[in-house]
Write the structure tokens for this entry.
Amino acid sequence: MRTLTKALQDEISPDQGIELLKKGNERFVSNLKINRNLLQQVNETSEGQHPFAVIISCMDSRTSPELVFDQGLGDVFTIRVAGNVINEDILGSAEFGCKVVGAKVVLVLGHTNCGAINGAINNVELGHLSSVTNKIKRCLPDIKKNFVKVTATDICEKVTLENVKLGINDLKNNSSILRELVLNNEIKIVGGIYDLSTGVVDFIEEVG
């Protein structure tokens, strides 16, 4: 597997970037990961990096993006925070990854049975964690109104999905840089849900 160069990065379209992530997840689930010489990649990326994607994921120890999408050194930027929520620091990091370095895809990656999601649902208050759960809670009123009779598992799934959609909208609405890149078809911002029980990522590519 070749280490990404600027020339190779330039050849990747946003749609191709999404497909690279999908194919990587398929390899991960099939236990057919690419055999990479990581030490060689250390040398080849020592003077520069040209990732094709920015992945904003939860800090959960079971959801490492490089493993889940079978990527090597220099392939993806990974930004990890409880509940995969978006704040100013993450916005700036995504802007850097796309506008400055040239990444073609931003993926907001949630996962099943997320502790931060459950904390928001159960109104957990704990120091600075409350700033995370408060961002997630934004989608609770509509879910509780539209789904009166739901199980704890169902509501967790619905909030997880809506939280990913909120993250996508936060990226588009709160960053003029990312919004312009999307409008110019230079990048795509998509979502995904990682299933802890199977390893499969379900992609969400259309968000109204």
Q: What stands out?
A: The CA atoms of residues 32 and 134 lie 39 Å apart.
